[in-house]
Amino acid sequence: MNLPAIGDVYRAKKTIDPYIPRTPLTFSAGLSELLDAQVYLKHDEHLPLGAFKARGGINLLANLSQEERDRGIITASTGNHGQSIASACRLFGAKALIVLPEGANPLKVAAMKTLGADIVFHGENFDQARAHCERLAAEEGYRYAHPANEPLLIAGVATQTLEVVEDLPDVEVIFMPLGGGSSAAGACLVAKSISSNIKVIAVQSESSPGGYRSWKSGRLVEEVNQTFAEGLATASGYEMPQAILKEHLDDFILVSDDEIRRAIGLLIEKAHTLAEGAGAAATAGAVKIKETLKGKKVSITVSGGNITLDQLTEAVKVYQQSP
Predict the structure, then answer these.
(1) pLDDT at residue 134, rounded to an integer
(2) At what angle do helices 6-16 and 182-194 cross, to 10 degrees?
(3) Label partner for 184 (CA 20 to 30 A): which of 105, 209, 232, 280?
(4) Phi/psi of residue 283, each to 5°?
């Protein structure tokens, strides 16, 4: 495998700077009081597409050859990655074809269509959509952009963590959500290249624990995939992110879907922040192990804010019912 390195992240930062604004890292008094720590939120939900994935799409398309762009780009997604590829294809003049599972987040589907992507629905979940996407790529000759096993995507999303350590050089713990694993792997690349003392902790739903089980076992494992948080909804780990996580990740936390929903409500009440399920997962993980964070300087990534009204209503209900 051609794994990305820290130099690739710095090159990605230079590539995406003209297109992607730097996102704020803000101190949260409410979460700091709750966790008895110095808590900062990395607000990638402030990006134009409402999610961190935009970083990877631009870095990928900017580095493809004209021949690859002319073939058209195909990918599978539950939403935010698809938005990223659609937006980057529009920017660099390539055709985008996005394969989505039936029942994909309608806000994200509408955004991809607005960005000019062609949409194909297939299967009940991401993994069925991905398998169909790979068949189409082989049959039709599209340039396949794997959602996780792409060095340029990982380097692109890793610029998020590069901004964190630039803004908070003495950060001690970084919490990242994990679905396919690109963002957590990118965080590991950056953090461990700068200081081995920075802990990186990944958080995944226990309803879709394929990434966690793969990390724990040291081999790619397929598990159930039932989480409501579509950005975390993958059935297995992926080779490239898992290779990086195996070497560098400090800890991996599983949280329940209701813990994620409570974190959505918590972010609204304590930090005036609206997050989707995957975007609130890192917060849920920090709350779950808050006893280990006392007095530490902590960065929690809010990776996306593309939540539907139904998801928000259910999250607020769960939060209000929590003790």
Answers:
(1) 96
(2) 110
(3) 105
(4) -65, -40
Sheet harboring 199-205: ordered strands across? 25-27, 38-43, 297-302, 173-177, 199-205, 251-255
Tell me how many degrees the CA angle 76-226-129 measures, rounded to the nearest 5: 20
Residue 212: CA count within 13 A, CB half-sphere:
21
d(CA 35, CA 58): 35
Q: Report whether pLDDT(10) > 80.
A: yes
CA-based nearest residue to 80, from 63, 43, 105:
105
Nearest to 287 by CA among 316, 323, 260: 260
Q: Are 161 and 17 in contact (CB under 8 A)?
A: no
Is 33 exposed, middle or buried, given 0-12, 13-18 or 19+ CB atoms closer than 10 A? exposed
Return the residue matching tokens 């990944």. Answer: 202
Q: Give me the DSSP letters along 159-178.
A: HHHHHHHHH-TT--EEEEE-
> What number of CA atoms fall less than 13 Å from residue 238's CA on the CB side?
22
Give φ, ψ of 251 to 5 degrees.
-160, 160
pTM for this structure? 0.96
Query: Residue 305: helix, strand or coil by DSSP?
Result: coil
Q: In sequence order, which ranges of 195-308 are alpha helices (DSSP H)?
A: 210-217, 239-248, 257-271, 277-288
Contact 202, 289 (CB under 8 A): no
At residue 323, the pLDDT reads 81
* Cα gap 173→154, rounded to integer Å: 20
- pLDDT, tens digit, 9 for 90 and up, residues 308-319: 999 999 999 999
